[in-house]
Specification:
- This protein is an alpha+beta fold and 227 residues long.
- The protein has 2 domains: 30 residues; 148 residues, 2-Layer Sandwich (60s Ribosomal Protein L30, Chain: A), CATH 3.30.1330.
- A 5-stranded mixed beta sheet has the order 1-2-5-3-4.
- β3, α5 and β4 form a beta-alpha-beta unit.
- It is rod-shaped, with a radius of gyration of 36 Å.
- InterPro entries: Bact_OuterMem_StrucFunc, OmpA-like, OmpA-like_sf.
- It holds the Pfam family OmpA.
- Keywords: Membrane, Transmembrane, Transmembrane helix.
């Protein structure tokens, strides 16, 4: 056999293309692999979504139980008018808690705070919030010669502190509650008569977000170290 003949045979063997079924098989294998990956990802996503929805449903159920417990504790005082509820703020009439120009808690007011402490505490801890206790007065100035308070700011501050301490005495964790004073500012009714002024003499309790300390923030100095 001549070299030219042999060369022609080799060229024919090298130029031969792979069969079409082999190419089709490789393509189908690749498509199946992609389909399997998409299926696994879809199943994983659906499982994660299902777990997330389940957790959110459980959180909503717990929040609803907290709300119902708080509403149950507020139902009777709300119906009697001793307590109001506006935009999430619980307002207690000053006449229920204190006598006029006094910061000494009355028995009726202490009993009311006793009934509210437990559901409030559960709500605050579960929602990781603080309770701000705010004191308010009417616009009438403190009478001269008053031996206890120089002005409405001082009266409202002392009333807020009295309620705060009463809640702590009832079992509220001290790190969950604090006092604030507003004096005659932010009235809920015009100070035009005795009825409207009585509405402004009040104490409000409102949940507020807890401030989170940054992980990198240095710890505060103790009193000994500060000295």
């Amino acid at each position: 056999m001549s070299l030219s003949g042999m060369g022609g045979g080799l060229d024919e063997g090298l130029d031969q293309e792979p069969p079409i079924w082999a190419i089709f098989g490789d393509l189908m294998t690749g498509l199946v692999g992609v389909f399997v990956l998409l299926l696994v990802w879809s199943l994983g996503f659906q499982l994660e979504l299902s777990q997330t929805l389940k957790r959110e449903t459980q959180l909503r159920e717990v929040a609803e139980q907290r709300r119902q417990a708080l509403e149950a504790a507020l139902a009777e005082p709300l119906a009697s008018g001793r307590v109001t509820l506006r935009d999430g703020r619980i307002g207690i009439s000053g006449s229920v808690l204190f006598s006029l120009n006094s910061a000494e808690l009355q028995p009726e007011g202490r009993a009311l705070l006793h009934s509210l402490r437990a559901p409030l505490q559960v709500y605050l801890i579960d929602s990781d919030q603080l309770l701000m206790v705010s004191g308010f007065t009417d616009d009438l100035p403190i009478q001269q010669g008053n031996l206890h308070f120089s002005d409405n700011w001082e009266l409202s501050a002392q009333r807020a502190l009295t309620v705060t301490r009463a809640l702590i005495d009832e079992g509220m964790p001290p790190n969950r509650v604090f006092a604030a004073a507003f004096g005659a500012q932010q009235p809920v009714a015009a100070n035009t008569d005795s009825d409207s002024r009585s509405q402004n003499r009040r104490v409000e309790m409102a949940p507020v977000p807890m401030v989170k300390r940054a992980a990198s923030a240095p710890a505060p100095l103790s009193s000994a170290a500060a000295l």
